[in-house]
Design brief:
By secondary structure, the chain is α/β, with parallel strands linked by helices. The protein has 16 helices and 14 strands. The strands form 4 sheets. An 8-stranded parallel β-sheet has the order 7-6-5-14-13-12-10-8. Strands 1-2 form a two-stranded parallel ribbon. A two-stranded antiparallel ribbon has the order 3-4. Bound molecules: D-xylose (XLS) and nickel (II) ion (NI) (2 copies). One nickel (II) ion binds next to loops.
């Protein structure tokens, strides 16, 4: 029988929906999982997911100081027993929060052993508890992944390491991580290129490293087929940090890489807000680029700080941001296998367990509002109609001919020489549209 753990959050009850007038910090003001928006419950639209690494493993240290996190359930050892107990605590947290999904790296949930086989054994021992807890609570695995960046062996990267043995080790680790993900019914598996990049080009054969990364991903696809894993594979773009440059730098670079190496059919993108901004883009840009290629898979919901130039992984609270995310997602037809995965951590100063609740409740409420606002903008129809009208010259006459591929430079020259006048150049109305969006916020 699964062991009944001592409650880690005894003073906190299941977080309920109390509506916008509630002053209770431990209640949802906007996220009502059963409320139906556009024919689907909020729960099914948003598919919220808690990340194991930040929420249960981040000690809240920074480069200038030690960890501050108070986690009374943790005995401070790297034992499997402690890891198993922590897993039960994680499910108590997620259950009380009402998050339907979670995500993890292999090394978040179980300690790295002295050899790969002992690491695998540790992982199996903790995965057993994860399976029991999933069954007990109904919480599901959004995606699994392997940590190919923390251990010193990966100092030069994993699939892009200059050392073939490291590539082999990484492959074996990913093989196991995919198998564990499959055994837990994971709906996806993510590849984030932790150190797949370079610190200096003076020591780097960029072409060879990219070829190796592609070979690695092809082997992963082959193994997925071999074991019958049906989950979605994702690539998570990030431009830098920890390396100076990562090969999967943004959505466009990932899509180009996937196309170049004939991998497009097997991967979608898992986009993260703070990675988008590190790349000099908005999240909305990344979502639209992915969506345009049919590759919008999942999102790592967080935010950076405009004053800080690194991946601060803060919880998203900005309603404009969540509105933009949800508008792109709804226009894309929603998330299917993906989810709104909070790849976010509380601040170093927010060291108490209750802060984990405040953070997630805030993020969930912000996304619930974003969803409602985005749905209202769509139902209103003015934004959509504006865009449609803006391109109306393509719906008839010469525009229609060009889009149908039935035109040439010669035709166009003839057309414009005859017409000699450009019609339909109208204002972009940016300010008008910004005001329109504000009507809904
Ligand atoms: C790091 C990434 C990482 C991935 C999973 O910046 O966001 O957390 O999501 O490996
Ligand atoms: Ni992430
Ligand atoms: Ni990140």
């Amino acid at each position: 029988m699964p062991k009944k753990a001592k409650e880690a959050f005894p003073k906190i009850k299941k977080i309920g929906f109390e509506g916008p007038d509630s002053k209770n910090p431990l209640a949802f003001k906007h996220y009502d999982e059963n409320e139906v928006i556009d024919g689907k419950s909020m729960k099914d639209h948003l598919r919220f997911s808690v990340v194991y690494w930040h929420t249960f493993r981040n000690p809240l240290s920074d480069p200038f100081g030690a960890g501050t996190a108070l986690r009374p359930w943790d005995d401070g050892t790297d034992s499997v027993k402690n890891a198993q107990n922590r897993a039960r605590v994680a499910f108590e947290f997620m259950g009380k929060l009402g998050a339907p999904y979670y995500a993890f790296h292999d090394r978040d949930v179980a300690p790295e052993g002295k050899s790969l086989s002992s690491s695998n054994k540790n992982l199996d021992a903790v995965a057993k508890v994860l399976a029991e807890e999933q069954k007990r609570t109904g919480i599901k695995l959004l995606w699994g992944t392997a940590c190919l960046f923390a251990h010193p062996r990966y100092m030069h990267g994993a699939a892009t390491s200059c050392n073939a043995d490291v590539f082999a080790y990484a492959a074996a680790q990913v093989k196991k991580a995919i198998e564990v993900t499959k055994s837990l019914g994971g709906e996806g598996y993510t590849f984030w290129g932790g150190r797949e990049g370079y610190s200096t080009l003076w020591n780097t054969n960029l072409k060879r490293e990219m070829d190796h990364l592609a070979a690695f991903l092809h082997m992963a696809v082959d193994h997925k087929k071999k074991i019958g894993f049906k989950g979605q594979f994702y690539i998570e773009p990030k431009p830098k940090e920890p390396t100076k440059h990562q090969y999967d730098s943004d959505a466009a670079a990932c899509l180009n890489f996937l196309r170049q190496y004939d991998l497009t059919d097997h991967f979608k993108l898992n986009l993260e807000t703070n990675h988008a901004t590190l790349a000099g883009h908005t999240m909305q840009h990344e979502l639209e680029v992915a969506s345009a290629s049919g590759a919008l898979g999942s999102i790592d919901a967080n935010t950076g700080d405009v004053m800080l130039g690194w991946d601060t992984d803060q919880f998203p609270t900005d309603i404009y941001l969540t509105t933009q995310c949800m508008l792109s997602i709804l226009n894309n037809g929603g998330l299917t296998t993906g989810g709104v995965n909070f790849d976010a951590k509380v601040r170093r100063e927010s060291f108490e367990p209750v802060d984990l609740f405040h953070a997630h409740i805030g993020g969930m409420d912000a996304f619930a509002r974003g969803l409602k606002i985005a749905a209202a903008i769509r139902a209103d129809g003015r934004l959509d109609a504006f865009i449609k009208n803006r391109y109306s010259s393509w719906d008839e006459g010469i525009g229609q001919k060009i889009e149908a591929g039935k035109s040439s430079f010669k035709d166009l020259e003839k057309y414009i020489l005859k017409k000699n006048r450009i019609t339909k150049n109208e204002s972009g109305r940016q300010e008008f549209l910004e005001n329109l969006i504000n009507e809904f916020i």
